[in-house]
Design goal:
Elements (H helix, E strand, L loop, with lengths): L1 H20 L5 E2 L2 E2 L2 E2 L3 E2 L1 E5 L6 E5 L17 H8 L4 E6 L14 E7 L3 E6 L11 E6 L9
Parallel strand pairs: 6-10
Antiparallel strand pairs: 1-4, 2-3, 5-6, 7-8, 8-9, 9-10
Length: 149
């Protein structure tokens, strides 16, 4: 019995030590085969313009960029009229798509790409395709590489 308690205590200590070593320093980095890959800026949590939800801003848009004009919570129509149409877009379903009787506007996600700027992520509407798409994430990536996987 004492051996089981000792092993359990060691396992918990090892788990806590592993978690503590993973604490971020403001950047996100990945390690592949022991080699650290370049870091990307950490996401900053930002309130939507009406204060009803939190969004994310990854990176910092330059003062004269199109992304500097944006606010979390803007609709896709507002963003397009303000900074123009995107160069590409990708739509995918979220796990909320499979919740019975879920009628919220986050059953899909829409990611739009602006060359030399980055990506914008919107809620993509409900399971029927309706609902306004709201801006929930701004990813500043002038050299590309901003797609979610």
């Amino acid at each position: 019995m004492a051996i089981k308690k000792t092993l359990a205590a060691l396992a918990v200590a090892a788990l806590l030590a592993g978690c503590a070593s993973q604490q971020g320093t403001g950047t996100a980095a990945s390690t592949t085969a022991g080699v650290q890959t370049p870091s990307t800026p950490a996401a900053r949590v930002v309130k939507s313009r009406d204060g009803s939800f939190d969004g994310e801003v990854i990176g910092t848009p330059t003062a004269n960029s199109r992304f500097a004009k944006l606010q979390i919570g803007m609709t896709m129509r507002e963003v397009s009229s303000l900074i123009g149409a995107p160069d590409d877009m990708i739509r995918h379903e979220t796990g909320k798509r499979w919740i019975p009787f879920y009628f919220g506007n986050d059953a899909q996600r829409l990611q739009v790409i602006y060359k030399n700027e980055g990506c914008l992520t919107y809620t993509g509407g409900n399971v029927f395709g309706g609902g306004d798409s709201e801006l929930i994430r701004i990813t500043v990536a002038p050299k590309g590489g901003c797609l979610d996987t």
